[in-house]
């Protein structure tokens, strides 16, 4: 892989300092100004999700402003929910500090993506067996997710692992005018071997989602001024269509509730990342069905069946097609930078001491139970698996939490 110092020029145009040494010792707070930022280390730049809004930790206050998209949120009990306890039961070294951005669960395993410190700066996909907490494979791949916090760019479905990031354009059939472009890698989860690398144009891939219609990739677009969602045939790697969005920034993409939903943002002339929107795409046609605005920045998470947002109001469960609040808002503070949803719970960090909580919600009654994990956590991404929560630390360590029954 060639020198990557010119990678992601789009993000390099608005410079910002490296904030991690300060972040790790301070209480998080809501950023006053958003910025796109570039992090360069040993010749490689990565797209920093948190730096895109000025800080790596986004702290959400309680009860400010009106509700997020939708009309009337469902009522929730006013009494304090019961709290259960959990603790970290394993720690597994994975990758270098600041270079291990994403974690996902699927095909019976935990998967972690990182890039190494060699001159080639190779991408790696690590497989962890949750039955033994052991690394069972570490495979070199052609790309890696480009986020510093918040995860993304890695998903597992139907026996395959999909990773999006960028690749040197001279390795692509259509190099185009730019030195790098978005890439998608498919890894066979039965053999752990890379099966296909697909060049997508644009600048780099932000996130990837899978549904019955194929593979969908959120891409920083070809003209530097628009995001786009690229539809890919999972068998041939052919691009089936492109849906251009009007926003200039985005982090998340989900296949949920029969729709493809992108979490995107406009960018101000000063470089500030503005309030979030949901761009809802019809997977049958690839057409943009709706754009649903939030009243604040929002971090998003989905398990394919439900969509959660951490906004200025707290945690909210949303109808992915309309943005209507179907549960919440639950008045809890969240840092937002580490959020995960699963059938059993939604997991989040709170800003006071970076404590870790999960919330179980009975959808029929609205009753909730909270689980507190003892400790203080500098985790930048979370993934839920049956009976367990997995947290990825900025120092490259993967942690396991066993959840109470």
Number of helices: 2
Shape: globular
Main sheet makeup: 8 strands, mixed
Strand content: over 45%
Sequence stretches where pLDDT stays below 50 over 5 or more residues? 1-78
Q: Identify the quaternary structure here.
A: single chain
The CATH class assignment is Mainly Beta
Can you tell me the CATH architecture?
Beta Barrel
| Widest β-sheet, arrangement of strands | 24-25-26-27-3-30-29-28
CATH topology: Lipocalin
What's the total count of β strands? 30
Structural class: mainly beta
How many structurally independent domains?
A: 1
Mean pLDDT: 80
- Rg, Cα atoms, Å: 19 Å
Distance between the termini: 46 Å
How much helix, percentage-wise, in residues? Answer: under 10%
Can you walk through the features of this model?
With 405 residues, the protein is mainly beta. It has one domain: Lipocalin. 2% of the residues lie in helices and 48% in strands. Strands 24-25-26-27-3-30-29-28 form an eight-stranded mixed beta sheet, with no helix packed on it. It is globular, with a radius of gyration of 19 Å. The N terminus is likely disordered.
């Amino acid at each position: 892989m060639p020198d990557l110092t010119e990678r992601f020029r789009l993000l390099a145009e608005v410079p910002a300092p490296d904030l991690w040494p300060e972040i790790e010792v301070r209480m998080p707070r809501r950023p006053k100004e958003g910025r796109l930022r570039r992090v360069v280390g040993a010749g490689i730049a990565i797209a920093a999700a948190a730096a895109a809004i000025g800080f790596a930790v986004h702290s959400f206050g309680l009860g400010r402003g009106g509700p997020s998209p939708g009309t009337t949120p469902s009522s929730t009990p006013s009494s304090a929910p019961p709290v259960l306890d959990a603790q970290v039961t394993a720690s597994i070294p994975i990758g270098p500090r600041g270079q291990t951005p994403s974690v996902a669960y699927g095909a019976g395993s935990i998967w972690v993506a990182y890039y190494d410190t060699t001159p080639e700066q190779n991408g790696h996909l690590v497989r962890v067996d949750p039955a033994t907490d052991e690394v069972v494979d570490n495979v070199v791949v052609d790309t890696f997710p480009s986020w510093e916090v918040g995860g993304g760019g890695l998903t597992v479905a139907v026996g395959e692992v999909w990773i999006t990031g960028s690749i040197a354009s001279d390795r692509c059939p259509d190099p185009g005018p730019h030195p790098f472009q978005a890439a998608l890698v498919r890894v066979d989860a039965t053999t752990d071997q890379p099966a296909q690398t697909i060049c997508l144009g644009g600048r780099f891939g932000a996130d990837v989602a899978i549904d019955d219609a194929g593979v969908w990739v959120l891409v920083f677009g070809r003209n530097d001024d628009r995001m786009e969602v690229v539809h890919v045939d999972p068998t041939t790697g052919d691009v089936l269509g492109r849906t251009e969005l009007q926003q200039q920034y985005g982090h998340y993409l989900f296949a949920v509730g029969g729709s493809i939903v992108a979490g995107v943002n406009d960018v101000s002339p000063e470089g500030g990342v503005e309030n979030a929107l949901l761009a809802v795409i019809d997977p049958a046609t690839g057409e943009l069905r709706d754009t649903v605005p939030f009243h604040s920045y929002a971090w998003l998470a989905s398990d394919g069946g439900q969509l959660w947002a951490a906004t200025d109001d707290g945690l909210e469960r949303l109808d992915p097609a309309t943005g209507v609040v179907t549960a919440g808002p639950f008045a809890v503070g969240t840092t937002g930078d580490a959020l995960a949803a699963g059938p059993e719970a939604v997991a989040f960090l709170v800003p006071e001491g970076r404590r870790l909580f999960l919330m179980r919600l009975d959808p029929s009654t609205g009753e909730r139970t909270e689980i507190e994990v003892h400790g203080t956590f500098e985790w930048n991404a979370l993934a839920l698996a049956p009976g367990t929560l997995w947290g990825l630390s900025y120092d490259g360590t993967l942690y396991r939490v066993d959840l109470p029954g």
